[in-house]
TrEMBL record:
Domain FAD/NAD(P)-binding: 8-305
GO cellular component: cytoplasm
Enzyme class: oxidoreductase
Keywords: FAD, Flavoprotein, Oxidoreductase, Redox-active center
Lineage: Bacteria, Candidatus Collieribacteriota
Needed co-factor(s): FAD
Protein name: Thioredoxin reductase
EC number: 1.8.1.9
Catalyses which reaction(s): [thioredoxin]-dithiol + NADP(+) = [thioredoxin]-disulfide + NADPH + H(+)
Keyword set includes Cell membrane: no
Family: Belongs to the class-II pyridine nucleotide-disulfide oxidoreductase family.
Species the sequence originates in: Candidatus Collierbacteria bacterium GW2011_GWA2_46_26
Assembly, per entry: Homodimer.
Length: 323
């Protein structure tokens, strides 16, 4: 019975950070259980070709990359279950994680539940990977000489618009207000780019398409007038929310809900003497987009998974992290 076993490490989440952590820990001959969830693989399961992950010179499909990482973790002995964690108790020497009514015990836990991009709520998810995207850095090259639109007004939206402008024939930047929230330098770069047209005081109210995205309808928030725009790509840059609801009251979170670890809380002592990926609870580590509010790339998530695994291994063997 699973309840009778105490795992060395239970990893909650199965994206690039979780699977990388599983590879390192299982290869170190520790017993590892990955509770990958019913949406195993994270955001890469909704992407098409990934061209910027090292080692794949011809690119790799997002789902294929995740399945390869999972298979590599299993090769070294990690067990993977596609079930959602429903409850946790992380304080104390033994960590307890529940899958439904089943209790799973562990000496250490790595949280790699990721983050989700905020959506418009217009059913646009059906065109994810078919014209709709939340990562221009990942997908801009697919829109060469095509028309794209970016929704948002912060630095992330500016970065997306500029990334797209390198390839697209035209980029619409759609923003609800009459001024941008982005930093001054990013605003200057966007307004100076002849390919980018800012549509002020407007919001997307409809997303259109059949097999792929074909266009959007926008509405002026002051006049109520609507306009149909033909676009090949729609990029959403309206923020992310980390999947940390399960961990509220268990570990410290920042004001946006991201996990606070030694990497992000500015604690120099943690860097010098402890474990940079550890959360506020001993034996509980965080990695990937559930911690990273800035870069949000598959490769940085995988790197953080490696860091969390190395920290967890040292923690379990009683060693102090050496830096």
């Amino acid at each position: 019975m699973m309840e009778d076993k105490k795992w060395d490490v239970v990893i909650v989440g199965g994206g690039p950070s979780g699977y990388t952590a599983a590879i390192y820990l299982s290869r170190a001959t520790l017993s590892v259980l990955v509770l990958a969830g019913t949406k195993a693989g994270g955001q890469l399961m909704n992407t098409t070709e990934v061209e910027n992950f090292p080692g794949f010179k011809d690119g790799v499909m997002g789902p294929d990359l995740m399945m390869t990482m999972e298979a590599q973790a299993k090769k070294f002995g990690a067990e993977v279950r596609y079930e959602d964690v429903t409850k946790v108790e992380l304080i104390g020497e033994t960590k307890r994680v529940w899958v439904g009514d089943e209790e799973v015990k562990a000496k250490a836990v790595i949280i790699s539940t990721g983050a989700s991009s905020k959506m418009l709520g217009l059913g646009e998810e059906k065109w994810m990977g078919k014209g709709v995207s939340t990562c221009a850095v990942c997908d801009a090259a697919f829109f060469k000489e095509k028309i794209s639109a970016v929704v948002g007004g912060g630095d992330a939206a500016m970065e997306d618009a500029l990334a797209l402008a390198k390839y697209a024939s035209e980029v619409y930047l759609i923003h609800r207000r009459d001024s941008l929230k982005a930093s001054k330098i990013m605003q200057e770069r966007v307004t100076a780019n002849p390919k980018i047209k800012i549509i002020w005081k407007s919001e997307v109210v409809e997303v259109k398409g059949s097999e792929k995205l074909e266009g959007i309808k926008i509405k002026n928030v002051e006049t109520g007038l609507t306009t149909d725009i033909v676009v090949d790509g729609l990029f959403l840059a309206i923020g992310h929310f980390p999947a940390t609801e399960l961990f509220k009251g268990q570990v410290d979170l920042d004001d946006k809900g991201f996990l606070k670890t030694g990497i992000t809380n500015g604690d120099v002592k943690v860097w010098l003497e402890g474990y940079p990926t550890m959360t506020s609870v001993d034996g509980v580590f965080g990695c990937g987009d559930v911690v990273d509010f800035k870069y949000k790339q598959a490769i940085t998530a995988a790197g953080m998974g490696c860091q969390a695994a190395l920290d967890a291994e040292k923690y379990l063997t009683g060693k102090t992290a050496s830096w």
